[in-house]
Amino acid sequence: MVSTTPATRTPAASDPGPLRPPWSARALIGAGLLVAAVAVTWLTFWWIGLSPASLAAGLDDTVRLLRRMWPPDLPGAGDVASMIAETLLIAVAGTGLAALASVPLAFVAARTHNGPRWLRPPARVVVVLTRAVPTLAFAILFVRIFGLGPLAGSLAVAVHSVGMIAKLLTDAVEETDPAPAEAGRACGAGEAQVAVSTVLPRVFPALTGIVLYRLDINIRASAVLGVVGAGGIGVALQTALGSLNYHRAAGIICVIVVLVLLLELLSVVVRRTVLRPTARRRTVRGRTARRRTDALPAGRAPYEVGWDRGRGLRVTGAVAAGVVFLVSLWSLDPDPGRLAGAWPNLRAVLSGMWPPAFSGELLMAVLESLLMALGAAAAGAACGLVLALLTAVNTTPWRPLSAVVRVLLVVVRGVPDLVYALLFVAALGLGPYAGFLALWISSTALAAKFFADSLEQLDPLPHEALTSVGARRWQAFAAGIWPQFVPSFTGNGLFVADLALRESVVLGIAGAGGVGYLMQESIATLRYDTTAAIVIAIAVVVYAIETLARIARGHLL
Question: pLDDT category, 302, cuts 50, 70, 90?
Answer without folding.
Answer: very low
